[in-house]
């Protein structure tokens, strides 16, 4: 899992290897000195003898679930990423906590999977219930009692703070948008995406629920801050900065106030859907970094299709990249870098390696267009 400043690699034997920035202990190594952005810390095993089954990387915190169903965390709790009721030393405020090694946060629930983005932490238990760990394990209840299957957390930076939205998928494969109440249920942040452009039901009918069902059923729906994809039948439609270039995006939204998709630009893409193994939708850069440096670091949001034959088709900034089946890709993971593992057990990445989240490649970065690495092997 590739976060903004660090990366966690979970292996079959349950061990976790961490790379990148360690400013707040997010690498989970007791003997490792504090790193700084750009420190280029090499990959080493997280300091725990537990066998883990799920990991997630936020901005400066990490989450994991061990095979006995316990919830673990390490790194910063400055924004209550682990909640308010966390293990602390005497007289230390919970938000001042920085765990240098994995600490058990909870063993009262049977945890199954964790999700993280920026300063937000979400966990799913084996009974299909969803919990907002960052809000002291507040449950995100399904209005019809159905079980949850998957979560996608999306944050978007506004000038006055962060706006968080969750894309949730339930056991009936229906999609929901959950808006994150940052301070209280009475002061929810607004949804980033316009309700009509995202097929949302009438927002006025759901203001107290914080859950917005997608009105128009789709076979597949995914989004990130500045791009997204949905599938109807055999037709894929991708919108935003993965299929249009930066100049086209700016022209479409010129004159709009603030950042955001005030005007959606979408394109239909011809895809062989029968042979798709996995669809990835993410961003190589945080939204603000991308928007402020769009002339230099052009590849922000991306959409990618991983096929059963091991090939990969990637769309970013209106361009298409392809990796042939001869590369032998076995598994692929999205995040701030696309990470893939080949059949000969080598690990590669695609992305900017922001904050040296996958190691220090020094002068190699300057040799790449806009510091963008394509199919670079992780050291």
Describe the structure.
Helices cover 4% and strands 40% of the residues. The protein has 379 residues and is mainly beta. Residues 157-162, 181-209 and 256-262 have low confidence and may be disordered. The protein has 2 helices and 27 strands.
Low-confidence stretches: 157-162, 181-209, 256-262
> Could you tell me the number of beta strands?
27
Per the principal axes of the C-alpha atoms, what is the gross shape?
A: globular
Provide the structure class: mainly beta
Write down the overall mean pLDDT. Answer: 77
- Fraction of residues in H or I helices: under 10%
Count up the helices.
2
Give the strand content: 35-45%
Placed side by side, the strands forming the largest sheet appear as: 4-5-6-7
Main sheet: strands, sense, barrel: 4 strands, antiparallel
> What string gives the helices and strands in order?
EEEEEEEEEEEEEEEEEEHEEHEEEEEEE
Radius of gyration equals 20 Å
Distance between the termini: 16 Å
Q: TL;DR?
A:
The chain is mostly beta strands and 379 residues long. It has helices at 246-253, 287-292; strands at residues 6-10, 16-20, 44-45, 52-57, 61-66, 71-76, 98-106, 111-117, 120-125, 130-132, 138-140, 148-158, 161-170, 175-179, 211-213, 220-224, 227-232, 235-240, 266-269, 276-283, 301-307, 312-316, 319-323, 329-333, 338-342, 347-351, 373-377.
């Amino acid at each position: 899992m590739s976060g903004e400043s660090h990366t966690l690699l979970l292996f079959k034997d349950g061990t976790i290897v961490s790379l990148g920035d360690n400013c707040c202990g997010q690498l989970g190594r007791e003997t490792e000195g504090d790193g700084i952005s750009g420190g280029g810390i090499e990959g080493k095993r997280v300091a725990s003898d537990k066998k883990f089954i799920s990991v997630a990387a936020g901005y400066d915190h990490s989450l994991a679930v061990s095979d006995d169903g316990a919830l673990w965390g390490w790194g910063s709790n400055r924004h209550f990423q682990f909640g308010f009721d966390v293990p602390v030393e005497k007289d230390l405020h919970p938000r001042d906590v920085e765990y240098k090694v994995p600490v058990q946060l909870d063993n009262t629930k049977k945890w199954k999977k964790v999700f993280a983005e920026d300063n937000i932490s979400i966990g799913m238990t084996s009974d299909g219930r969803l919990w907002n760990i960052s809000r002291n394990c507040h449950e995100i209840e399904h209005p019809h009692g159905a079980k949850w299957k998957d979560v996608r957390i999306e944050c978007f930076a506004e000038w006055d703070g962060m706006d968080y939205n969750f894309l949730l998928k339930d056991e009936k494969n229906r999609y929901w948008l959950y808006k994150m109440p940052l301070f209280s249920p009475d002061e929810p942040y607004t949804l980033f995406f316009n309700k009509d452009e995202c097929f949302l039901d009438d927002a006025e009918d759901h203001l107290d629920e914080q859950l917005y069902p997608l009105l128009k059923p789709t076979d597949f729906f995914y989004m990130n801050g500045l791009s997204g994809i949905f599938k109807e039948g055999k037709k894929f439609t991708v919108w935003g900065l993965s299929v249009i270039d930066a100049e086209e995006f700016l022209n479409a939204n010129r004159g709009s106030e603030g950042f955001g998709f005030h005007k959606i630009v979408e394109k239909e893409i011809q895809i062989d859907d029968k042979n798709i193994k996995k669809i990835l939708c993410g961003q190589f850069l945080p939204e603000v970094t991308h928007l402020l440096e769009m002339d230099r670091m052009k590849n922000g949001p991306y959409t990618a299709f991983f096929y059963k034959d091991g090939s990969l088709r990637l769309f970013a900034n209106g361009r298409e990249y392809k990796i042939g089946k001869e590369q032998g890709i076995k598994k692929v993971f999205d995040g701030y870098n696309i990470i893939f593992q080949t059949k000969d057990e080598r690990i590669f990445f695609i992305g900017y390696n922001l904050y040296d989240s996958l190691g220090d490649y020094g002068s190699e970065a300057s040799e790449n267009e806009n510091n963008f690495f394509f199919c670079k092997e992780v050291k």
